Amino acid sequence: MTGPVRGSRERMVFSAAQLIRRDGVTATGMRDVVTHAQAPRGSLQHHFPGGKQQLVNEAVDWAGRYAAKRIARFLSEMPEPSPSLLFAAMVRQWTDEYQTTGFAGGCPVAAATVDCAHATDATRQAAAAAFAAWSRPVAQALTDMGVPAEQAGSLATLMISALEGAILIARAEQDVRALLTVARELGPLLDAASSDARRGSTGESH
Amino acid sequence: MTGPVRGSRERMVFSAAQLIRRDGVTATGMRDVVTHAQAPRGSLQHHFPGGKQQLVNEAVDWAGRYAAKRIARFLSEMPEPSPSLLFAAMVRQWTDEYQTTGFAGGCPVAAATVDCAHATDATRQAAAAAFAAWSRPVAQALTDMGVPAEQAGSLATLMISALEGAILIARAEQDVRALLTVARELGPLLDAASSDARRGSTGESH
DNA sequence: CAGCTACTATGACGGCTGTCATAATCGGAT
DNA sequence: ATCCGATTATGACAGCCGTCATAGTAGCTG
């Protein structure tokens, strides 16, 4: 709707995100991105005058927005949403990919953080923004399910932390075990936070 | 005890781990490692005939053994150990570093996984072994605290996953918030698993 | 002394990287 | 037809990378 052949520029950002999450930022060359996106090499300096940094930052931004949209989609597909079901859906996205496509890629935001957090501050900020964009709809969904507002943000951070860590372990082990484990162990805790609130209990832990 | 000036070889492995966790595997050059370790460049091909791959793999191995030793030390320093206190100690190691030294580095095993899991299978296996070496003493400690054996491994995976993810987020945000959050939110769940078991409860979980 | 092994020094090689300078092409609007 | 901005093509540049070939030194053993 905006571009002619669906924007070669957008294709490059998308391809960058895909290659980054597979090989890391430093190991991903601009020529690789151009090839993967089937885009003209000459367009690079026109669309991304800021060089590789700009391309990487936009890829990280895109990943953050993508993750946020997935949360919305998960919720819309859920007849009776609950915290544990949302987390299970987030995890299942990864187990599905790993079981069908293989363990080639991880999270592009994690890759950018590991590779650029120290060397390139702008990319570090982009990663922080991506985590925030991802976390916001999760926390909002938790409050909608009855989790007290001051705990929703914390649980969202916990969910994303556990998911990111499990992705790492699953990729290293080439086994979805870690992903299934965190979903199983964390589910009851998440649901307890929403049902406790629905019951109106304030002081707990006996 | 084995080397003359405490082994230039060991220094290179250690420096490799430090640089990898700061800049990532690909961005860390062998010349950088030699410089950082103040080691003779000519020793590289003698001590690491397998090239960069061998050096990286040994650095990952070292990191795994180091993490395992830290668990043992945490436990030995704890008068009355509990799952939540162990996890708090694991988290505090990172908040301490970040608050005193800055947010320069992350976990070297995570960096190796992100950077090499797809390209270099041997490094991926080294990362998996490091996670296993790290997880084993955690699970053992949990069983010693009364967590049922079949749940101890799962909780160890959950702890390491949440910690790794929180490290990522903390580094991106340059704020220890995520680390403090996972410690606070996960603590009660961990202690419940050990006290439940001590009470002898067997079947429920839904 | 020689001889052997462990370690170090040095320089070079091909290949890849991000970036840039320059020019060509294309699509509309005038 | 002419012009102009947006897009693309192409080639080159300096710099870094991991690796290797070769030679040298130190230290122990005979």
Automatic annotation (TrEMBL), chains A, B:
Residues 16-59 form the HTH tetR-type domain. Keywords: DNA-binding, Transcription, Transcription regulation. GO terms for molecular function: DNA binding. The keyword Transcription applies. Residues 87-184 form the Transcriptional regulator LmrA/YxaF-like C-terminal domain. The keyword Membrane does not apply. Pfam families: TetR_C_13_2, TetR_N. This is TetR family transcriptional regulator. It comes from Planotetraspora kaengkrachanensis.
